[in-house]
Amino acid sequence: MRFDLTDLRLCLLVAEAGSITGGAERAHLTLASASARIRGLEETLGIALFVRHPQGVVPTPAGRALLAHARRVLLQIEQMRGELGEYAAGLKGNVRVASNTVAMSEFLPDLLGTFLTEHPNVEIALREQTSPAVVQAVLEGAADIGVVSDWIELTGLETVPFRQDRLVIVTPPGHALAAREGVAFADVLDAEFIGLPAQSALAEHIDGHARRAGRAVHYRLRLRDFDSLCRAVATGAALGIVPLSAAHRSATVLNIGIVPLVDPWALRTLVLCVRERDALPVYARQLLDHLQAPPVDITHTNKNGTT
User: Fold this and answer.
1) Can you give the residue ranges of the HTH lysR-type domain (predicted)?
2) φ and ψ at residue 158, rounded to 5 degrees
């Protein structure tokens, strides 16, 4: 039984996209070619790999088994390419990183940018996910490196500290909360908020804690990033919840108040996680080393946003 690497990559892309059309686009194949390749693979194996339905496709149990093997095979190919890349000029390496919202927005851009500058033969595929989804992606081999909050179950993964992340309330100028040294999340749930998109990892995290309190956050508006959110808050429209680093950055140009959330879940240590460091492709190991740094201590912030 012979397998084509293109077919294996295509199956992974189809599974990630949830449709043959999406997988074909990511693989730079026509829909007809991608469909023919998957049918041919299924005929060779004598078993269906995907269940087709109007909304797309989902892997069958046999498909999930194939995907697990495909990830391992392609990872070994990537390791080989990375090792040979030390000797063969121009050979590209690709590192897959999955991250929660805060790390992706606040900490990774500069670090990933400097890494790419130092490693011109590397490309990075960065994907935003909730911390549980990041862990699952790393465990399944769909991501090489994950960045998550340490409150999540990390059994089976190797981890190293990355940064500390404190969530704070940002307020309009002169707001009554701005004089507070800290505030509990439950005490502000009657207020109106500017938030991130509902599907963002941080929004899901905040909304989940509201649900556990038997409440819901009232959003007047959702914006795509922390800077836009803080700009809207500064107009007096509503409150916002952002990482301290984003609040500090915006406070340099905007008249906003910064009040720490005192709930234990609002202070999180972000960690880097991998399934097995020594099994990573060489470029992924280099990126992991590049990202490692002592956590920043931001455990206390006063009402003016200074530590």
Assistant:
1) 3-60
2) -90, 135
Rounded CA Rg of the chain:
22
DSSP state string for 76-142: HHHHHHHHHHTTSTT--EEEEEEE-HHIIIIIHHHHHHHHHHH-TTEEEEEEE--HHHHHHHHHTTS
In the predicted model, residues of the chain with pLDDT beneath 70 are 1, 82-92, 293-307
How far does Cα 9 stand from its chain's mean position?
22
- CB distance 105 to 167 below 8 Å: no
Class of 165-265 per CATH? alpha beta
Q: Which of 163, 233, 162 is nearest to 196 (CA)?
A: 233
Other C-beta atoms closer than 10 Å to the C-beta of 3 total 14
What pLDDT was estimated at residue 76? 79
Distance CA 101, CA 87 (A): 36
**Cβ neighbours, 10 Å, residue 256:** 22
Determine if residue 56 is left, alpha or beta; phi over 0 gives left, psi from -120 to 50 gives alpha, anything else beta: left
- At 282 the pLDDT is 83
In the chain, where the domains are located:
165-265
Whole-number pLDDT of residue 85 = 61
Can you give the pLDDT at residue 23?
92
pTM: 0.65
